[in-house]
Amino acid sequence: MLGNLLIVLLILALFGPFPRCSHSRNWGYAPTGGVGLTLLIVVVLLVAGRI
């Protein structure tokens, strides 16, 4: 249950750092990549049964 909630929150967090505001356009895709990597780690841990 907690793992599913964490995955949903991370998926929603993927859309936050997209460069749509003028101050965040020079960030590139690093924030999205960091959240994506965290999502990948959580999915692997969920599949492995650690969460």
Please tell me about this protein's structure.
With 51 residues, this protein is mostly helical. It has one domain (2-17, 29-48). Helices cover 63% and strands 0% of the residues. The protein is built from two helices and no strands. Helix 1 (2-14) runs antiparallel to helix 2. The longest helix is centred in the C-terminal third of the chain and has 19 residues, at 30-48. It is elongated, with a radius of gyration of 13 Å. It starts with a helix and ends with a helix.
Structure summarized in a few sentences:
The chain is mainly alpha-helical and 51 residues long.
| Average pLDDT over all residues | 74
Order of helices and strands: HH
Q: Main beta sheet: strand number and arrangement?
A: none
Shape: elongated
Provide the helix percentage. Answer: 55-70%
Number of helical regions: 2
Derived structural class: mainly alpha
C-alpha end-to-end distance: 9 Å
Radius of gyration: 13 Å
Low-confidence stretches: none
Count of separate structural domains: 1
Beta-strand content estimate: under 5%
The count of DSSP E runs of length 2 or more, i.e. the number of strands, is 0
